[in-house]
Amino acid sequence: MELNVHNLEGGETGRTATLDAAVFDVEPNDHVIWLDVRRIQAAARQGTHKAKERAEVSRSTRKLYRQKGTGSARAGSAKSPIRRSGGTIFGPRPRTYTVKVNRKTQRLARRSVLTYKARESQVRLVEDFRFDEPSTKRLKAALHAHDLGATKVLILTNGPDGALHRSSSNLSRVQVRPALEASTLDLITAQIILIQEGALEALSQNLVGRAAASAA
């Protein structure tokens, strides 16, 4: 698949780039996408929830009333879970929500999402650019030039770009990620993916390079 390379002002540069079919034209696997998104969302959970159980609440341990002769059910201490302010039965405890997904599966998930985006014309190439200093105004103007002012955009850069990242911090619909660090969730939630020309080859090598090398 050939894509035109655009400049920052929204115009075409007259050059084209070829999208690697092993990344942008595979057989999408929806289940694998679901697995990787589940892994990412699970990893974002702190797992620090905690409820006090019977042994942890601060209440009297005195037996509330005698065992027999009252006509009421037996009762122990005020810590009993069936009493108001008593302990919690089977309450939440601190735990980890980590879900293990193999790296090959994670790469397949990202290739599947990129394939969907490419087929729906939601992938756009822009020439490499850098900001000398953070400028939200300049980035916003560039997005409007591409007619993406009201679109949720993911910009994949060729390596970390602090100035560009800070330029996007006040734009709620814009996310900047180094191409090698973009997750399946980042890709799937974006309406348009802007890929810097220099990041395209690195992205392809990261998603299929090691798998191809091992197969050879």
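Next protein, fold it too.
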Amino acid sequence: MTIEKHERWGDPGRLPDDGVLVRTDAEASDAMGAARRDRRDPPVLGLLGGDLARTCGATGDEARLRGDEAQTLPVDVGEALVDGVLRHFVAHVVVRRPFWRGRVLAVMNAQYLGRWNVAPRSHPNDGRLDVLDADPPLGERWKVRARLHTGTHLPHPDISVRRVTGAQFDLDRGTRVWVDGRSVGAARALSVRIEPDALHVVV
């Protein structure tokens, strides 16, 4: 079940012997995608790094994942259909032009994008994706960027924020898509949806 407000999240539990250690969001989504292609349950993932790991409070300490202080958490997983190609993501999908010009679209399952606190209200087990759609003028763009690391860029009149279970987007020519930090090239169409409680992670 997805988490409700003020509910406890997760339970004590160390990484099982067949668990998989991942150091990036891309490694985590690769493990999820491989399990789905093979029609098997995804492995429990030990989070050592990445934006999902930071959102979940991971320390990057491998010994902790195998000790009594470890916590096992259920998390949602996103699905992105990028020009008809299905990809899984655990943290985010980012759509933008080179040098961050023009419209920027961020579909967030995690709270963070690198050092930026992009979606302060996002929770990876609430059954929703936080969609930020922004195209501020140049002067405002620099102000937004300066506030991203603290999450104080929101609310902003040039940034729309929606919390959704699924959405579709038509993209301009030349727009590139990044899935969990990995470029998948330019695209013209993007659909996203959330799969609640699809994965368990250990932090």
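About the second fold: Helices lie at 25-37, 51-55, 62-65, 138-147.
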